[in-house]
Amino acid sequence: MQNIITYKKIGHIALVTINNPPVNAMDFKTRLALSDAIDQLNSDNKIKAAVLICEGRTFIAGADISEFDNLPFKDPWLPDVVQKIEDANKPVIAAIHGSALGGGLEIAMGCHFRCAVPSAKLGLPEVTLGLLPGATGTQRLPRLIGVDKALDMMLTGKPINAKQAIEEGLIDKIIEDELQEGAIAFAKEILEKQIPIRRLSKTKIDKTNVTTELFEKYRQRNNKTACGFFAPEKIIQCVEAAVDLPYPESLQVEDNLFMECLNSDHSRGQRHLFFAEREIARIPDVPKDTAIRNINRVAIIGAGTMGGGIAMNFLQANIPVTLLEIDQEGLQRGIDIIRSNYAGQVKKGRMEQTHMDQYMELLSGSTAFDNISDVDLVIEAVFENMEIKKEVFKKLDQVCKPGAILASNTSTLDLDVIANYTKRPEDVIGLHFFAPANIMPLLEIVRGKKTTKDVIATAFKLSRSIRKVGVLAGVCFGFIGNRMFLPYVREAELMMLEGVSAERIDRVACNWGMAMGPHAVTDLSGQDVFFKIVDGWKDHPDDPAFFRVCKALFELERYGQKTSKGKYIYEGRKAISDPKVANIAQQEAEKLGIEQREISDDEIIKRLLCAMINEGALILEEGIAIRSGDIDVIYANGYGLPRYRGGPMFYADLIGLKQVYDDINEFRDRYGNRYWTPAPLLEQLAKQGKTFSEWSQHK
Ligand code: 3H9
Question: Which of 124, 504, 509, 584 has its CA 20 to 30 A from that of 88?
Answer without folding.
Answer: 124
